[in-house]
């Protein structure tokens, strides 16, 4: 049965956020729920099958609450909200409204998926957290946000950023400039996140005072890192020895987040990733949390999700072909 129901818009901000640029958000909702959405005299008119219109009303209520709490709506957040709605989990949208920190421009940094929310909770509740997942899942950005939050609350006295410089042979000697200049290209994503949350002036001031420290992983050897929030980025490129060395640097009052994408390892074929090894070895150890984010947690262009899914399918297919060949060769012997 075709019905028509109204949703009253109480704030102009919600109307703007809901419709998006060129009505792109509304088009997503119409397509997913097979309804028509019309703006009429300050109200949103929903038309379609009754069960679909009722779902749309639930969605509008949850999205309105999100916007009221300072959240911005875009195609990614609308798509994710729709997927939760169709699974019957629309009430879980409330879990994504916690603000970690505000950017320099006053924008709230919040988890955008339930996977990201779990990741944040693991960082809160553990001394060491492994965040593994494909590009675009917010692993690095959210780790930096949690570091800035801890720093601003005086829970730690400094932030340390590190990553293995595999491409430079971990030596870095041939690159021009001082240590910071040599490492900068490899830590750009971390810098971008810190600029976003602290502003360039504060970042540079903290860097000069040693409150933010940047160093390649090799320079961590022999140190004990007390009262620090340490982020090891691109950890899939660590060897087993490097990972053990890093994890045993943790001092009193410190917290570490280790991020990486196991599908983008630059190590030689005969070297097993230290990140993969550490997760296996440390599974179940108290004080250590681990999460694997998936394509559902990607917060970049929607095409990135489809690319990740396509590569996963291809890799699985190649693995199946490889296993069949091995079985065939075994039978011949």
Automatic annotation (TrEMBL):
Alphabetized GO MF terms: ATP binding
Presence of keyword Cytoplasm: yes
Places the protein is found: Cytoplasm
GO cellular component terms, A-Z: cytosol
Domain PhoH-like protein: 109-312
Swiss-Prot/TrEMBL keywords: ATP-binding, Cytoplasm, Nucleotide-binding
Any Pfam family the entry gives: PhoH
Family statement drawn from the similarity comment of this UniProt entry: Belongs to the PhoH family.
Entry protein name: PhoH-like protein
